[in-house]
Specification:
The protein is an alpha+beta fold. The chain is 43% helix and 15% strand. The protein is globular, with a radius of gyration of 14 Å. It starts with 9 loop residues before the first helix and ends with a helix.
Length: 89
């Protein structure tokens, strides 16, 4: 079962977003990438661990990236359109 957005609290959410964006920039990713984490709530923010950055995440309508975009109010078609527009810019 996917819970999107994750129910991990504002502090850990902010930290995860910061770490994911930093990893994306450091690795020189373009377009879309997905950062995978493990989280131990017993440790609070210290229990957040970045596992990997997936530079070619699935893009089928049932994949995680479209699911995450949908949670932000973005349709699959709009997501693909944004990726194409940014690739051409």
């Amino acid at each position: 079962v996917h819970v999107c957005p994750a129910d991990i609290g504002a502090e850990v959410t902010s930290l995860a977003l910061e770490q994911a964006a930093r990893a994306h920039r450091v690795l020189g990713c373009r377009g879309v990438s997905r950062a995978d984490f493990r989280y131990d709530p017993a440790q609070g923010a210290d229990g957040l661990y970045l596992l990997e950055v997936n530079t070619q995440p699935g893009m089928t309508p049932l994949s995680l990236v479209p699911e995450q975009a949908s949670a932000r109010g973005l349709t699959y078609e709009a997501l693909v359109g944004r990726l194409i527009d940014r690739a051409l810019a």
